[in-house]
Amino acid sequence: MGAEHKRRKKHKTLVPLVLFVFLLLSLPARAQDNRTVTEPKVPEVCASLDAQQTKDLDETKPDTKRIQDALDHCAAGHAVKLTHRSRYDAFLSGPLQLKSGVTLLVDGNTTLFGSRNPRDYDVSQGSCGIVNNSGRGCKPLIGGNQIEGAGVMGGGTIDGRGGATLIGQQVSWWDLAQEAKVKNANQNCPRILVINASKNFTLYGITLKNSPNFHVVFNGDGFTAWGVTIDSPRTSRNTDGIDPMSASNVTITRSFIHSGDDSVAIKAGGTGPSTHITISHNHFYNGHGVSIGSETDGGASAIRVTDLSIDGADNGIRIKSNASRGGLVRDVVYEDVCIRDTKNPILMDTHYTPLGEGRNKLPVYEDIVLRNVRVLGSGKITLDGYDESHRLGMVLDNVYVATPEMLKVTASHARITEGPGPVNIGIAGKDVRVDNRAEKGAPETCAGKFVPMPQEAGR
């Protein structure tokens, strides 16, 4: 075989290989939710239940049994619809259990109210509606264990009535939460929705409000929240919006969250990691912003936060843990984020104190990228690694503060790379190295990013 023939054969072999490598490098990174997530569709209705109450509820006439019976007898792939009739627009319920393939559909201008009776939620006799050292004494309003393909949908509202006085007591759920804080103890208050060890759960179009505790908790593989509104007052303690816990393949999108705690809190405790999570096209208001932690000992990774506004919060972008339940948090990208009038717009916290300190599970944050992040207003930016052996590793690419003179910046045990987009934050501190590769450029604006919180239908 001649030299020229060999050269041509080698060239023909290399061209497809080079083209393949080029195409592979050109593909978008699949570090976020691995599923292809599209707007959910409401299933066909298997049973439609008419409301028999108004919002002036008769607490002696709960709808729990007839809703649960309808859910139990509904075939997979269908929905139980709660709807209004004439002046009747309210349902009253204690704990409900979902099953695989069945959706609870709350119609527009219809509200499902949670019971105010702690006994309805008892895990064991007298365990709910109290403050003690153990906690975990309440069932959720809506629960699901080891289910697949279920959901909660509709244009209506689920109201946990966290601020209402409990039956037989002189306090509300939120009062118990505050009492627990003062006593350094645990509240026993129900959550609106807890889905455990499950697959492919969907929240769509629903409004959740006034949860006694967290609004939504999901543990499992495959969770979508699309067009969800969560609304609780700033003063309602521990009313997290959506908490993926040891969860994978999660998308939270096109939603509005106004809460008394974390808008979203990604947790990764001893039950396993949280990974492949997309948080996109959302608006957050009061509360503690988008958080990772405080449990990170299971590992958190492959998280993408894009097109987000945070307005008037206590915290904006936050990763929190400590040496009692820390672990590796890596491959996290925040992109196209606008933060306004927030006390701690960027907070990397490896000494999060409310959970106590230890030396067994040290927090490590690596490969954390902030790209096209804009901060408006005063506040404090904290970039702290744990120690010289567990440094914070971050990239800041086009991170712009509108009024840098109004922001305090602290940093320690960190390795920061700036660029290629401009960065106008002065970063210095103990064991801090800044590799400045930033180029000149104009920061993006936040025009059109901040929008009002939606008003509840029929309000």
Write down the domain tally.
Answer: 2
- CATH-level-4 superfamily name of the largest domain: Single-stranded right-handed beta-helix, Pectin lyase-like
Q: Return the average pLDDT rounded to an integer.
A: 92
CATH topology of the largest domain: Pectate Lyase C-like
- Structural class, please? mainly beta
Q: What's the main sheet like?
A: 28 strands, parallel
Identify low-pLDDT runs.
1-30
Task: Tell how many strands the DSSP assignment holds.
Answer: 30
Task: Please tell me about this protein's structure.
It is a single chain. With 459 residues, the protein is mainly beta. It has two domains: 44-201, Pectate Lyase C-like (3 Solenoid); 262-450, Pectate Lyase C-like (3 Solenoid). The protein has helices at 3-26, 64-72, 173-183; strands spanning 44-50, 78-83, 90-93, 96-97, 102-106, 111-114, 131-132, 142-145, 151-153, 157-159, 186-187, 193-204, 207-209, 216-226, 229-231, 242-244, 248-253, 256-258, 264-266, 274-284, 290-292, 300-311, 315-320, 328-340, 344-349, 364-376, 379-384, 392-401, 407-418, 429-436. The strands form two sheets. It has a 28-stranded parallel sheet that branches. A two-stranded antiparallel sheet has the order 7-11. Helix 2 (64-72) links the parallel strand 1 (44-50) and strand 2. The longest helix has 24 residues, at 3-26. Residues 1-30 have low confidence and may be disordered.
